[in-house]
Amino acid sequence: VQLAVSGGGSAEAGGSLRLSCVASVYIYRTFAMGWFRQGPGQEREGIAFTDFNGGSIDYADSVKGRFTLSQGNAKNSMILQMDSLLPEDTAMYYCAGCDIGVCSVIPDVNYWGHGTQVTVSS
């Protein structure tokens, strides 16, 4: 499975950015996807996760209410809309795919997309 990531870039605090991730395969019943990020000097953390077939979506507290995860036009894709950005959102963002589980923690991840940089200036 390959995960193609697009989006990211720079924004001012309070602004918005959008990330997209497309999986190279059809989303089978147990497949889940998520977004992780890793800030400078920080560990990689899961911030948004979805189980497409179950319809569940959840967020880390740090982004809840500001970021929105949704399925893209293609069933094997997801979009992360990031609004009300904060300087602490500055990080490398990664798309993740999981054969089973919720895809919210690194041990669950089977596939990684390439990172895309998000930089938020104050």
Which labels suit this protein?
mainly beta; 11 strands; single chain; seven-stranded mixed beta sheet; 122 residues; four-stranded antiparallel beta sheet
Provide a short characterization of the protein structure:
The chain has 122 residues and is mostly beta strands. It is 0% helix and 50% strand. It has strands at residues 3-7, 9-12, 17-23, 32-38, 45-51, 56-59, 67-71, 77-82, 91-98, 111-112, 116-121.
**What is the tally of helical segments?**
0
Distance between the termini: 37 Å
Kindly state the percentage of residues in helix. under 10%
Number of strands: 11
The whole-number mean of residue pLDDT values reads 92
Q: Shape from CA axes?
A: globular
Model regions low in confidence, pLDDT < 50 over at least 5 residues = none
